[in-house]
Amino acid sequence: MAVPSAETGALSAGDAGVRSAAWHLIPLLAHGYIVGYIDRSNIGFAALTMSRELGLSATVAVLRVGRDTPHFQRRVWECTLPMRTVSVTSCAAGAVRRESRLRAVVGCMRSTSMKKRIRMTLGVCVGLAAALLTFIPGGRVVAGDGTGDDEQTLAELGLAIAPVPLTYSAKDKDLVGLGSYLVNAAGDCNGCHTGGGPPNFNYAQGFNPYFGQPEKVDPSVYLSGGQDFGQVAIDANFNPIGPHIIARNLTPNKTGRAEGGNTFDQFRQILRHGTDLDHLHPPCATAPSNPNCLFALPVINPVDGNLLQVMPWPTFSHMTDHDLLAIYKYLSAIPCIEGPATPADLPPTSQYAFTALHNDCH
Ligand code: HEC
Fold it and tell me: What does the DSSP assignment read for 50-75?
């Protein structure tokens, strides 16, 4: 009769031990999570190197505690080593021989001196983790192995596919590369902003992929603007009315700034909100006496002449500031194209847009 009750008592004491151990494990798990996070962020290597330089060896802990010890526990021991390597590992090793591995760890942790050490160690580890995280630039992982879509890869690809010679400072290289990727591989800006006409439009003679030929963009009309997208407003009889929408010259002018000399703030305003800073086709509420105003009619044609039409700014507005800056830097690096010398060089429907198509390169 006494044996079962003794067993019951022993079991409940064991349960209490496990419960209390579970509580003690929480801070360690949190620590394990942080270390795991650092690992995912590619700087786990840095932590390992630091441990090695400090003369610590994760292997010692692994061998003593057991090869099949879960990953986080290994890291816990590794981090605990700086406090008292010998006592921690030998305590664990001794216990491992007698008890199950979990109990060994719990036993070590429950001793008062060990609790203090663990608390101190946790403090050191959390501080170390915080310090390391601070050094990850912008919270991003910038290094890459060249196989994924990391920024370095996109930048290199962007520089390789740029169809025109680029001028930029060394510090802007990666931004310009990313910008080229966004303009030439994603945004298709030159598909609309080319100055070329039929039959090849943005492609060089003999290099039009739509004719089954190898692809080469025509650099002489690259992003110089002038495509006519027709009328976007209608009158009360549903007839098209108002100015034709003309894609504009995006090349830099003599200031070297993108898109005819705009600042980055102006450029961002345009791409985020579609603001027409040139006011080429201002809105008008009555039937247009000015042929260049965009006539708005409630319900059937509420077009807003203050906004760029056709231009996919609602899509581009979702880009990050970083991406927009990259595009801006790229558009500052491409060659200036002067465009038409006088309005008379343009078809009648495009002449009103002359100021947005002509660029002073010198
Ligand atoms: C679907 C055709 C199309 C595409 C693609 C396109 N644009 Fe445009 N964009 C236009 C048109 C058309 C205008 C002029 C709209 C107007 O006059 O209302 C314009 C205007 C602009 C303007 C305003 C220029 C100024 O002088 O204020 C900027 C800047 C611009 N586009 C940048 C870009 C960039 C950068 C890309 C690629 C990421 C791009 N566009 C892709 C059609 C396009």
Answer: HHHHTT--HHHHHHHH-TT--HHHHH
Q: How far apart (Å, rounded) are the C-alpha atoms in residues 308 and 311?
A: 6
pTM beyond 0.85, yes or no = no
144 assigned to some structural domain: no
pLDDT digits (tens, 9 = 90+) for 215-257: 999 999 999 999 999 999 999 999 999 999 999 999 999 999 9
Confidence of residue 22 (pLDDT cuts 50, 70, 90): low
Does 194 lie in the same domain as 250?
Answer: yes
Give me the domain span that covers residue 274: 151-357
Ligand 1, atom 42: closest residue by C-alpha: 311
Residues 77 and 70 sit within 8 Å (Cβ to Cβ): no
Same domain, 340 and 209: yes
- Residue 145 resides in a domain: no
Ligand 1 binding pocket, CB closer than 6 Å? 183, 187-189, 191-193, 229, 245, 247-248, 250, 259, 270, 276-278, 280, 308-312, 316, 327, 356
Range of weakest confidence among 21-35, 161-175, 294-308 = 21-35
Reported as a single tens digit per residue, the pLDDT across 258-269 is 999 999 999 999
Q: Mean pLDDT in the chain?
A: 76
The verdict on 63 and 90 lying in the same domain is: yes
Distance separating alpha carbons of residues 278 and 308, to the nearest angstrom: 10
Residue 88 tokens read as 């921690």
Residue that terminates a domain, selected from 96, 115, 138: 138
Residue 114 sits in the same domain as residue 179: no
Give the residue from 138, 164, 181 where a domain finishes: 138
